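One record is kept unedited as follows:
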Amino acid sequence: MFHLSPFENSLRNGGVSNNGNKKCHSKCTGSAHGIRAVEKERSKITRQISSGKKLSSISRCTGRNGKHILDITDLQTAALFRKIPGYELQERFWFKDLLNAVQCFNDIKAKSEEQIASEKEWLDAEKMWLMHRGGFSMARKLIVPDLESGKVRLQIEQTGEVITVDEDDVEKSNPPKFDRAEDLASLHQLNESSILHTLRQRFATNLIHTYAGNSTLLVINPMAPLSIYSEKVVALFKGCKSEDMPPHIYSMAQSAYHNMLSARKDQTLLFLGRSGSGKTTNFRHSIQYLMTAAGSVNKILTVEKLSAIWNILESFGNCRTVMNGNATRFTQIFSLDFDQSGSIASASIQILLLDKTRITKRMDGETTFHIMNRLLCGVEGNLRKELFFDSLTGNEQNAFFVQLQKLEEKHRAQTDFGKVLNSFEVLGVHESDLKIIWSVLAAIFHLGCAGAAKNSNSNKYQFNNPQAAQKAALLLGSSVEDLSRIIFGMSSGGLTTPNAPRAPFRTPSPTDRTSDREMTGLEALEGIITELYAEVFNCVASLINKSISASASTVNSLLLVDSPGFQNPSSCGRQAGATFDDLCYNYLQERLQLLYHHSNLVTPKDRYEQENISFNFDDSSHEHMANPSHIVNLLDKTAQNTVVRTSQIDLRETDRRGLLWLLDEEAIYPGSTDDSFIERLFTHYGDRDYQQLLLKSSGNHQFILQHMQGTNPVLYKATGWLKCSRENPVRRAALSILQDSCKEDFSKLFVNSRGLGTTSYNGSLVGIEGSQSLRRASSIRRTFTAGTAAIKRKSICLQTKFTVDGLVETLRRTKIRFIQCILPQHNAGLCETNSTLISTKNDNGLLNVPLLRSQIRGGQILDVIRLHKQGLPYFMPLGEFRRRFRLLAFDNKVANNGSVLDERRAVEDMVSVMDMDSSGYRIGLSQIFFRSRTLTDLESQRDEKLAGMVVHLQAHCRGHLARKKLVKKKLQDLAVRCIQRNVRKFMLVRDWPWWRLLVRVSPLLNVHRTEEQLRQKSEELDLLKTKLDKVESERTMLKHENDKLESKMMEISADLAEEHSTSTLAAERLDAETNERIRLERELSETQHKNKQLQQASERLEMELLYARSDLDGISEEDDEGEGEGVFKQRYERVVKELEFTKRRLQQQHEDDLEQLVGLKKQLEKKLSDAYEEVEEQRQVVGQWKRKVQKLNGEMNDLKHLLEEQGARNNLLEKKQRKFDSETQLMQDELRQEKILKERVCREKELCMAEKFTLESNIADIKLELELKDEKLAAFQSELDELTYGGKTEEEVTLLRKQKIDCERRLHDQEEELDELAGQVQLLEQAKLKLEMNLEQMRKTGKKEAQLHDEELEEVRCNAQKKVKSLEAQLENEHEERTILLREKHDLERRLMAAMENDNNEKACDEALLQRLKRDLKRTKALLRDTQTQLERMKAETPGKAMIRQLKNQLEDIECARSLAAKAKQTLEVELSETQSLLEESNRQRNDAEDKLNAVNRERSDMQSQLEENEEELAEVLKKYKASVSQMSLDQLALQEQVSLVTDLEIERNSLREQLAELTTKLESVESMGDASSNLVMKRMELKLKELESKLELEQTTKSRLDVQISRLKEVVDKLQTDLSNARLKEQNSQDQVRKLQRNLREIRDELNSAMSREGETLLKRKELEKRCEELESETATARTDLRLALKRIEDLQSAIQGDLDDDDSMENSDSEHDSYSSDDSVNTFLAAHNKEKNDRRFSTASSSGGKESGSYA
């Protein structure tokens, strides 16, 4: 059962509602209106979804709480559902997540408390991703205190296991709300695991598309058909903007289309990925969407034509490979050309890099192109006989094809062939052209059956099966002899180039290798077959282009590029190695990946640098692997020297060449083989720098290339690459066979198909004459006719390079959007596309995570997303921005400034006026850059502004059109009136006989004349038709001949270019050889000259040797004769022996040196290898650190970006808050005005009610008067009746009349009195209204003043509190400083006391020492006297004199030391006094500071008391204010009571009026009746009047009392104002006092700082004094030791001269005293001089530092 809402029914019907069958194309918001209706419904639905009819495949299938997180079991469940054919799944989900197209993932909304709590809980959990070889796992981080650095303790959530891993193996995870993020750039934590997790979660819910920035879409192959490509889905995306669309292949196509229309620039959709990843499928879906959404002019492109094109191209260009069951083996560029209105005006398809050698390959597990098997199994009837297939048995021997054997495969091929025929019919291909195509394909098959064999007699090749060759010749319109001559052309027993008319003009090329070896017949047959199939494929492309192209003028084009995927057969189990064609396709993918790298990584950074935008982006580690240019350079690096073949020796002097150039160079030279190519390849790239790109393999002719940044290593086998890299010379004869066929249709078709030229390997751009798309793609054609491409026309590998160069150059000139197609498994391309049955080999789920990771790394997706997230991906020229968004600048000066001199300044002014977030944009030198959401927000604001302007313009236009329509209506009315008048006249004339005669005769007059003219015109027409047919036939014949001649001319021009290249190459080689010959001749002459010199030197040495020998012989003979035999002979022999010995010694030394050098070389090699190993280890370590730095930088950048997003979000919320506040303020102002208006209206209403009441009373009075008058009239009538019929007398009548007159007079008086009373009442009412208005005004003013007083008092209180707090903080700081100063003071005092005690102790010690020294001196003086007397006696004894002299010197030293100690003591006393004075001064300053601090404290207490008094006064003022407010409320209550009293009085007045009216009626009746009771009535009336007067007096008294109360309130308010002013004055005074206190505090602090500096100086001086005291102590210690020695000597002297001293003591007393005095003086002088020198030295060293200190102190 379906339980669907009305909106879902509309969704299922493709946007058609159930009510009106009207299509709701949501042009700019997709299905936003429907989703809003759905969001109102909070119901839950249940529906059945089948595999073929489900539209929700693009929706999120989340749980009820929006937190459904998928794991491996969910993936297995999804895979299980995919495996069941026609499954039905019952889903329950909320309407909020129905379509991704509506819910924008990054909407800025306020978070609820539950969301905040859940996010906090998730953050507290610290969940991480643990990366391992099999993928990644969710884990929880555990905090462990004692853990090694670089390690992390984790608990895996799935198993609960606790493990310790490295930090590099852990990555941060994102909150659950990002599990199915539409854009990977929106992830907070951007890393590989988070990306893989998001892709896996989306893939499990059939969300195969994911954004990766603004120009990249990731598409995972679903391996099953999904119903997300229907017309209903197209309607949802049609007309939408990029920011409004979910990730889908349609969104990329719509974005490209929208950008093309808005920017008027060519666009490109480029599909990248491995083989089997779904590139071709997405390519077709994109074209189908563009065709459906944009439409085409004159149905030039329809759905039927597209399906027909896909069927044809799939049949002719697809085959089965190891990796893909339906692999595309050609590159196609589908160009859609659009006109001014955005419709498709023309289209074309361009074919490049066709794998035409596939037609002759027989590989295990692979087949040839589908069309061959479909033709063999599907052709029937006469066509089968014409193609000579009627006699096929299925067992024919064919060297190139393997026929189908299974019945199921044959039946499928037959069905597919029927589809191909229908496709050609849809495209409008003529049967004759189709028959030619089938004939050529049949001829290819028959040529394969014919084979080739060598004739044993003539040693020439011929067909092995002549019957099959005959069939092929008949189908091609040729003979067997010509075919054999062309294919197996003989020239001296070997093969030569085919005979052609231009052969005599050709010269043998030095690059032609046909002379090296004989080409086998099978190779020649292979060459002709491959070229025939290439011509057929070009012909098919030409027919397709003719069907979908038009000559209309176009504006822009949209290119879609599909190419064969990346080939790696070893990933699917084939270990034989990749082929040369796989290398070419892999090279194409590498170049496209390099284009992706430059477009998304290099170009933005260069643009930032050019525009002077500060931007930091850390590239990934492994610089040589992070850039695809390294592997591209290894493949196609251009050779600078194309003449001389490089080798290992000269490799250092020349640059390395790419693999393709090496292969081409190796194929040129004779004798080269596949082994030599491999050897040269590793010679160029075998060093350590290229080990990570190129590796050797264990197999024969095998090597490994690390493609895609090392993530996809491919094993290549180079067997036969030299043959594949050169063009087969027989191939060029295929075109001559087709064009020179005896069948005219053959020649016409293939000449027309080659109208634009072709190449030998790369296909052509064919079939369109003057097409706009081909003119835009002219760079591809130019590569084949000029430059190096024309020179290398025979080199297939270099032609591939030049073709790819042209393709990339074409794409660079457009705006490119990349679609990265991803393989979920290695065998995903082998799944059946027509069913949902999938054979999966991976038991862990449907996604192979390591494979997915390698594709993400190889495609540099993470780097691109990080750059997009951190950078500013959107940019616009400054002039364009100013022109486009000046509507949003509200300032007229900024907005209306048309032309400016400084664009940047103008844009800055605009941005400042627009109030944009500064983090969302950067202004460069010529462009402005935006973040992801900034430009979309600006566009939406601009659209809103434009919508208002357009609405205004539409209103004016409608008015203008209405006015024009009115004028037209008036003219039509006039014309209708004129026609009516003429018709009326005609109706009058119609029956006249002469009119009838005129109508009948006038046509007959021109019959004969018209028949003659018709006859002449028909004759002229027939003549012109015959001439036209003749001219047309001549034109077609001439056109055919012209095309034929042009094709031949192009071939001749190509040959000419080749001849020119041959001649230039030969000339270059000749110049090189001549230069080499000249160099060698020069070297030969030099070597000959050196040889001559050496010969002459050797001859001279030989002659000298002969002369020396002859001299020795003569000398020996003479010696023999004269002196004896053998002297010189012995010498000669000895010399010869010595020479031989030295020779042997030198030889042995040389051998030893050689061995030593060899050992040293081995050691150096070992060290070098160790160094390389260390370098490699260091590289690994550096790589690890780089990865860590990259990881940390990525996390830091993610956090920065998140912070910026939060800041932007906060700024936006603040803006919204400010806007809301302004709006609320405006609403409050409007409410206030409305209240004022309401009060005014109420007052007017009251006035109107009063007027109404007065009018009603007047009307009542008038009615009463009328009634009274009627009653009077009735009374008068009765009186009259009584008078007439009563019979009374005249006297009575006169009396009555008198009474009546009196009553009337009284009545008139009473009426006057009543009028006076009414006037008084009215005056009272007016006074009452005035009082009410005054009271209301006073109440409002009182409220306003009370509010103002409240606000002012609140401000005063807040300011006072702030000031009190600041003063308290200052006082606390001062108290702290005071405590610190007191502590320092106590410390200083303690130190000073200790210093003083030390000084006193030292003084006491010094005094005791001096006393002791004095005593010692006295004793020594006495001893010296004795010694002097003794010395005088013993003058003759010389030893005694020396001893005495020595003792004198010692005594002098002691005396000098004593004097120095005394002087030092004096200086220390002086310094001590100075320090005491400084200490006293510091104490005095400290006391002053304490006094000031106490004063400040007192002032602070006074200020605090004043503040308390101010607060008390403020409280009293508030109390008074509250009392006044309460009094005012009481007064208001009293006023309300008075108002109620006034209303009661009004009611009483009305009642009195009524009573008065009644009284008047009664009075009149009394007057009429003449009753005596009138006096009583009058008395009563008078009483009532008195009561009214008393009430009036009461009201006046109440009014006076209210006036008194109002005056009292005014006095109270004035008193409050005076109190407030007094409080303000007091506050101002308190602030002044606070300022004064602050100044005093600053002065006290300065004084304290100065005192502290002085104390520091005193401490320094004290330290110096202590040092001096220590020096003096050391000096005294030395002096004591000296004195001890002297005392010992003196004791010895005393013991020696004890006896003599007693005798001579009395005699020489006076002389001894004189001598002692002189000796004391000498000792003192000596000590003083010595001490002075020491002091001078000491003070000279200390003076510099002391001078500096004193300078600083000063």
